[in-house]
């Protein structure tokens, strides 16, 4: 399993979208394999292997029907992962929410794909020229809007992320949300440049979910809502269909993927020691696990877009693209950035500082966790150079 | 033994009949020879079955013989098959028969009426819509697995009826449906489970995985076989969007109850050994997909 993931990571790096997301997938799977020692390891690796293959196929298929099939297929191993290796009884309704939100919202997409396939008698990706009207575009992207959740259809995300085991959360945050982004990129042929309503909803939704973040009591749930906020950036950028916006969304997808999965892993580290995810108990990393504190610092500050990281550049490109659209977006974008900094600092300060009420001695910290955390942080710094 | 011979002979007759009268004859023979098979299980169900099928046969005979009743042909065939709004007998029978009989009932007993419906190319949207809706909604609150399967057969009938205009599609969907359904029923009957509450009693992981594959294949989720036959039917009927919208939404509802069954067995796996090679065979069925997938 290790070998397969190493091999996956060494493949050639095209600079196409699919290639970038493939590289991300391989990297995340490599990390995931390292990070959890599950019960029932054989079936666990089978599920992970199936999921990896399906995601690989999603990003390399050339036909839209193939993309749709693998998009839906990836639900099943994820649900198996949540149900089989999650550890709370709430994972049952969480998996229902996950399945049904994605399934029902991808139906219009299926219709549109089929009708375009039969119109052009082919379902290759290059045939999607701009000839739909606005309704068709919105219906086609509905599936992707729910998948990388737009605010009003985001209910499944905190549930699924919190209930999933750590690898499930990691792969969900890192890759599965990006499937939605990739799909949005694919349907840009139908873009009509006039969905101001959806854009407005995205933006306001991003601000709302940042505010919700500040009131969370569960670390994983905060990271999940931060995913919603970041993905609202991505949706908005994709809907504008310009060069800068596309660049911003791909950068945001990669950086958010790495960052969120790192944060989930850090939350898991704490969970394995304290057996709780509540903010009241996960405190004072600085005194208990000081090396961990560095990773918390790095990842949560990169989450809000601190300069030398990839997140920062994605936000920069995003600002440029968005101001191109309308100057009044400046206020909302500023609000969004400000509030995301708010919750990131809240996350860092409440987990790293403060008084630990429960544990009063240093805890051990294994090499494996070092490796995983560093694998998350370093790409964020290094990828800027590309 | 003779009753099985009669049954199979009636299937042969159905398929090789050249006229409506031949079809009627073979359907009569079919229902009459199915009654002794059912009567071992439950007398009440066999009586219900017999009554319904004979009423339908009489209506069918009248409609094929006389000009003024000929509009009744599809209704008679729909009663025989158990489509909504004539599905109530199917539901009440499936509560009390065994899995083996239910398997026969839902799969092979449909050959005759489906042949008749395919000959007249019956695509009335009312029946399709109502079968889809009742099949989807009816199964949601059930806890008896056989009832869930009966409602699933009603909703799959709506999918079958949608592509009646092309005989190839009808037969393709039917064959695929029979294969998937028989594999699911083989698995479910092997463990003797009757109601939903029993599914969490600790079955081996491979068994619950293969049950899940079979059921999700019936539900029409990719990458299983069931998705591809539904996709074929959708592609055929793009001209009537309300129809396909209702079909797909009812399919979503049915995903709910299939998923319910699949998941309750998956949540509590015990480490018992795999129950023979049959489970692996069933698993491979769900992935009869590598062939169509390679065509993508």
Structural class of chain A: mainly alpha
Main sheet characteristics of chain A: none
Counted beta strands of chain A: 0
Cα Rg of chain B: 19 Å
Number of domains of chain B: 1
Helix count of chain A equals 18
Helix content of chain B: over 70%
What is the count of β-strands of chain B? Answer: 0
Give the overall shape of chain B: globular
As residue ranges, the low-confidence spans of chain B are none
Interface with most residues: A-B, 31 and 25 residues
CA-to-CA gap between the ends of chain B?
A: 46 Å
What is the mean pLDDT of chain B? 82
Shape of chain A: globular
How would you describe this protein?
Chain A: It catalyses: a ubiquinone + NADH + 5 H(+)(in) = a ubiquinol + NAD(+) + 4 H(+)(out). Chain A: It is found in: Mitochondrion membrane. The complex is a heterodimer of chains A (386) and B (296). By secondary structure, chain A is mostly helical. Chain A has one domain (42-385). Chain A is built from 18 helices and no strands. Chain A has helices at residues 2-9, 17-35, 41-60, 64-73, 75-85, 91-105, 107-120, 134-147, 156-163, 166-186, 196-213, 219-240, 243-274, 285-288, 290-303, 310-325, 329-352, 367-382. In chain A, α9 crosses α12 (219-240). The longest helix of chain A has 32 residues, at 243-274. The two termini of chain A are 29 Å apart. The mean pLDDT of chain A is 77. By secondary structure, chain B is mainly α. Chain B has one domain (1-295). Helix content of chain B is 73%, strand content 0%. Chain B has 15 helices and no strands. Chain B has helices spanning 2-15, 20-39, 43-65, 73-81, 88-94, 99-107, 111-120, 125-138, 145-162, 167-190, 205-219, 225-236, 241-266, 277-286, 290-294. In chain B, α1 (2-15) packs antiparallel against α2 and α5 packs antiparallel against α9. The longest helix of chain B is centred in the last third of the chain and has 26 residues, at 241-266. The radius of gyration of chain B is 19 Å and the shape is globular. The model of chain B has no long low-confidence stretch (mean pLDDT 82). Chains A and B meet through α4, α5, α6 and α7 of A and α12 and α13 of B.
């Amino acid at each position: 399993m290790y070998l397969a993931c190493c091999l996956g990571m060494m493949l050639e790096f095209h600079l196409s979208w699919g290639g970038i997301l493939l590289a991300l997938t391989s990297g995340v799977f490599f990390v995931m394999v390292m990070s959890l020692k599950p019960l029932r390891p054989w079936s666990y690796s089978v599920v992970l292997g199936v999921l990896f293959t399906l995601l690989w196929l999603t990003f390399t298929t050339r036909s839209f029907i193939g993309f749709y099939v693998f998009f839906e297929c990836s639900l099943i191993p994820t649900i198996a992962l949540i149900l089989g290796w999650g550890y709370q009884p709430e994972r049952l309704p969480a998996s229902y929410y996950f399945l049904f939100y994605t399934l029902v919202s991808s139906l219009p997409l299926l219709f549109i794909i089929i009708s375009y396939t039969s119109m052009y008698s082919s379902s290759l990706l290059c045939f999607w020229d701009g000839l739909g009207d606005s309704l068709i575009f919105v219906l086609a992207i509905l599936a992707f809007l729910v998948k990388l959740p737009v605010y009003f259809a985001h209910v499944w995300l905190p549930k699924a992320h919190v209930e999933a085991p750590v690898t499930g959360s990691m792969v969900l945050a890192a890759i599965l949300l990006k499937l939605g982004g990739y799909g949005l990129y694919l349907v840009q042929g139908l873009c009509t440049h006039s969905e101001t309503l959806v854009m407005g909803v995205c933006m306001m939704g991003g601000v709302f979910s940042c505010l919700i973040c500040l009131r969370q009591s569960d670390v994983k749930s905060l990271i999940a809502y931060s995913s919603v906020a970041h993905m609202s950036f991505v949706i908005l950028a994709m809907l504008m269909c310009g060069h800068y916006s596309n660049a911003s969304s791909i950068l945001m997808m990669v950086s958010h993927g790495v960052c969120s999965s790192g944060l989930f892993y850090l939350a898991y580290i704490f969970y394995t020691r304290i057996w709780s995810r509540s903010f009241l108990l996960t405190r004072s990393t600085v005194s208990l696990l000081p090396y961990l504190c560095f990773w918390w610092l790095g990842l949560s500050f990169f989450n809000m877009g601190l300069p030398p990281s990839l997140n920062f550049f994605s936000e920069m490109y995003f600002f440029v693209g968005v101001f191109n659209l309308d100057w009044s977006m400046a206020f909302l974008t500023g609000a969004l950035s400000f509030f995301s900094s708010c919750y990131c600092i809240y996350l860092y300060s409440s987990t790293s500082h403060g008084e630990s009420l429960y544990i009063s001695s240093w805890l051990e910290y294994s090499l494996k966790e070092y490796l995983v955390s560093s694998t998350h942080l370093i790409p964020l710094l290094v990828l800027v150079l590309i | 033994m003779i009753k099985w011979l009669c049954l199979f002979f009636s299937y042969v007759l159905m398929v090789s009949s050249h006229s409506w009268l031949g079809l009627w004859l073979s359907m009569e023979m079919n229902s009459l020879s199915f009654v002794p098979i059912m009567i071992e299980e439950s007398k009440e169900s066999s009586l219900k079955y017999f009554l319904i099928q004979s009423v339908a046969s009489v209506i069918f005979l009248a409609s094929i013989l006389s000009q003024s009743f000929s509009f009744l042909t599809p209704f008679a065939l729909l009663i025989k098959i158990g489509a909504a709004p004539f599905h109530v007998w199917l539901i009440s029978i499936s509560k009390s028969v065994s899995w083996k009989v239910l398997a026969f009932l839902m799969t092979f007993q449909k050959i005759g009426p489906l042949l008749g419906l395919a000959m007249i190319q019956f695509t009335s949207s009312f029946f399709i819509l109502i079968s889809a809706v009742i099949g989807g909604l009816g199964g949601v609150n059930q806890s008896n697995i056989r009832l869930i399967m009966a409602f699933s057969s009603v909703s799959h009938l709506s999918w079958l009826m949608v592509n009646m205009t092309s005989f190839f599609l009808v037969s393709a969907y039917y064959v695929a449906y029979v294969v998937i359904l028989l594999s699911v029923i083989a698995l479910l009957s092997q463990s003797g489970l009757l109601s939903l509450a029993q599914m969490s009693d600790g079955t081996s992981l491979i068994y619950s995985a293969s049950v899940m594959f079979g059921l999700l294949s019936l539900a029409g989720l990719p990458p299983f076989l069931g998705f591809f036959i539904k996709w074929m039917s959708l592609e055929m009927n793009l001209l009537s969007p309300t129809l396909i919208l209702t079909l797909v939404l009812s399919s979503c509802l049915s995903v709910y109850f299939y998923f319910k069954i699949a998941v309750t067995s998956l949540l509590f796996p015990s480490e018992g050994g795999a129950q023979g090679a049959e489970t692996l065979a069933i698993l491979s069925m769900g992935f009869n997909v590598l062939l169509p997938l390679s065509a993508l």
